[in-house]
Amino acid sequence: MSQKRKQDAIGFPPSTLGEVPLRLSVLAENDDWVALDKPAGVAVREYPWDGARPNMDAALNQQLQAGKPELLRRGATLFGSVYYMDPEMSGVAVFAKNREALAELRNRFGSSDCAFRFTFISGPRIDGLESELVADAPLLPHRVKPKMIPSTAKGKKTFTEFTLQAESSTGWTLWEACTGFFRPHQVRAHAAVLGIPVLGDALYGGLPIPTLRELQPKKRGAGLSVPAFEGLALHLSTCDLTPPAAEAIHSELPRHLQLLLKRLQLDVPKPEGAS
Question: How many CA atoms lie within 13 Å of 14's alpha carbon, on the beta-carbon side?
Fold first, then answer.
């Protein structure tokens, strides 16, 4: 499935994905799928833990059925998300354009035939913790809370590889998480198991998002006591649907995370092949 880059975007008017209109960049596309740059706070599909919030599957199909030109010209008969993403994370979201492609891509994803790379920020590293880690704790949905818990008896097998990318003088750490298949909340749950929970992830013990005043102590004025952003400091940076592909799908860190990295004095390495 050769892909071709398209320098365009798909629009979502008010009420389709929330009260605010959105225009999401097309990261890559071919005849069978399109990859969009999903912002934090937007759901890709319905999921019990996410409530009745709008989602991209429904919004895309609603506009396709209404005859929106920028969707009709893509040759799609339907849109279906290939994998689930936590609404709180940002990054590469891939949607099949027909039933055959959706079945093939979901089967490829479920068979761990793809490759995914996440970038996230955590707090200070525990003394003695190595810079390369592997989490393989089986995960099981909590019976009451919307979260995953480790369970060797009933959990489903999964694994995540973690690599430390940068560490600031003040203790903040930047990590990469890689896997061939990810379950809901997998990176968040495995990061917490290893003692490196994602920044802003209160559900798994992550530190709260710093306020603007904490990030800019010399600045004065009203409104600095609010968190620097909403959501998680977690981003799906790279998706490779057919590894080892010549060109994987990349999504740059959103601006608020880029600014946060700068203020925390953390430098994110560029992915291979990225300009």
Answer: 2
C-alpha 42/C-alpha 21 separation (Å) is 12
Tell me: pLDDT of 5 over 50: no
Q: Give me the mean pLDDT over the 127-155 stretch.
A: 95
Of the candidates 216, 181, 219, 174, the one whose C-alpha atom is nearest the C-alpha of residue 198 is 174
**Which among 123, 109, 79 has a CA at the least distance from the CA of 183?**
109
With residue 149 as reference, give the H or E element that holds it.
Answer: strand 148-150
Query: Model confidence over 32-55: pLDDT tens digits?
Result: 999 999 999 999 999 999 988 999
**What domains does the chain contain, in order, with CATH numbers?**
1-111 (3.30.70), 114-268 (3.30.2350.10)
pTM: 0.91
Rounded Cα–Cα distance for residues 147 and 7 (Å): 37
Closest CA to 194 of 210, 177, 182: 177
DSSP conformation class of 103:
H
pLDDT band with cut points at 50, 70 and 90 for residue 275: very low
Task: Check residue 6 and give its pLDDT.
Answer: 45
φ/ψ of residue 185, rounded to 5: 65, 10
Closest residue by Cα to residue 105 from 139, 77, 125, 82:
82
